[in-house]
Amino acid sequence: MLVDGGVGDYVASLFSQTNMSPLLVAWIIAAILRLCLGSATVAALTTAGMVAPLMAANTVNPGLMVLATGAGSVIACHVNDAGFWMVKEFFGLTLKETFQSWTLLTTILSVTGLGCVLLLAMFL
């Protein structure tokens, strides 16, 4: 619905006037969608459709866009994600312990992934 409604074109037009890296834009959009929806899969696929026009307007490595989108889509795993509950139950953790460990771990993973993608972008 977001893609068919022209949101991707709108997002591309919003960021076409900025100096922000398209890789960072993809990561931010994926991260926001992940936080709102809870699903990494939905966040990644929706972001891909939204940033496609942005990729066409810029010279950016498609592989790095995929990695940036994927990194953004795994940030802050929380209660709307089945993986959160599986980790909680498999390890016998309380809700607080799961937030302190799993949610923190996925956030570190996401930010580290973004850093690696931006570092790779300097060489590719």
UniProtKB/TrEMBL annotation:
Keyword annotations: Cell membrane, Membrane, Transmembrane, Transmembrane helix, Transport
Entry-linked Pfam families: GntP_permease (PF02447)
Subcellular location: Cell membrane
InterPro entries, per the entry: Glcn_transporter
Transmembrane segments: 24-52, 64-87, 99-123
Keyword Membrane: yes
UniProt entry tagged with the keyword Secreted: no
Topological type in the membrane: Multi-pass membrane protein
Lineage top rank: taxon: Bacteria
Annotated family: Belongs to the GntP permease family.
Designated name of the protein: H+/anion permease
Record lineage: Bacteria, Bacillati, Bacillota, Bacilli, Bacillales
